[in-house]
Design a protein that fits this description.
globular, 174 residues, membrane, 71% helix, VTT_dom, transmembrane helix, transmembrane
Length: 174
C-alpha cells in the first residue's frame, strides 16, 4: 500500500511516531485530543498519521484505533470530571478550552435537546467532536454512562478515519 501524504505534520511528531515509542506517543496525543488540549495538529490527522508512520496492517490498524479510542475516552472523561467539579466558568476561562460562552450555550441546547445520543454523535463529527463533554459533565449524567457513550462515538470516528486512510491508500495503488 502507498501511504497517503500527510502534510503539516510537525517533524518532531513524525520522528516520535516512527520511533519505538510510537504507541506511547499516540496514546498521549489521544489523551490530549480527548481533553481538548491538542493544538499542534487537527484531531482528524492523528489516526491517519499513526497509520502512515507506524503501519497499516490489520493488527496495526486495530491496535492504533483501539489506542486512539481508549486515549480519547480518557481525555474526555478527565474533561467531564473537571467540568463537574470545577464548573462551567472555570473551564471557559481556560485558554486551552476552544469555546466561548455563547458557543458553549449552543452545545448546552444540543445536549438538552438530544441527550445521551448527542455525546455519541458529537464524537463522530468533525469540528464539534467532543464539545458536548462539558455540558454532559455539568448534567446529571453518570460518569460510566458518559465513558461508554464517549468511547462509542470515538470508535466510530477513529474507525471512519482509519477506513478512509486505508481506502485512500488502496485507491492510490490503481
Amino acid at each position: 500500500m502507498v501511504p497517503l501524504q500527510l502534510e503539516g505534520l510537525p517533524n518532531w511528531l513524525e520522528s516520535l511516531f516512527a520511533s519505538e515509542f510510537a504507541f506511547a506517543v499516540l496514546f498521549a496525543i489521544c489523551i490530549l485530543e480527548g481533553a481538548m488540549m491538542l493544538r499542534f495538529m487537527p484531531s482528524e490527522l492523528v489516526v491517519p498519521s499513526a497509520l502512515a508512520l507506524i503501519g497499516s496492517s490489520i493488527p496495526e490498524t486495530i491496535a492504533i484505533v483501539a489506542l486512539a479510542v481508549v486515549g480519547t475516552t480518557i481525555g474526555q472523561f478527565l474533561l467531564f470530571r473537571l467540568a463537574r467539579r470545577a464548573g462551567r466558568e472555570y473551564v471557559i476561562q481556560k485558554r486551552w478550552f476552544p469555546l466561548t460562552e455563547s458557543r458553549l450555550e449552543r452545545f448546552d441546547h444540543w445536549f438538552d435537546r438530544w441527550g445521551r445520543i448527542a455525546v455519541v454523535v458529537s464524537n463522530t463529527m468533525l469540528v464539534v467532536r467532543g464539545l458536548l463533554t462539558v455540558p454532559a459533565g455539568l448534567s446529571e449524567m453518570d460518569g460510566r454512562t458518559f465513558a461508554v457513550l464517549s468511547s462509542l462515538g470515538s470508535l466510530f470516528f477513529q474507525s471512519i478515519l482509519a477506513g478512509l486512510y486505508l481506502l485512500g491508500g488502496y485507491l492510490l495503488t490503481f
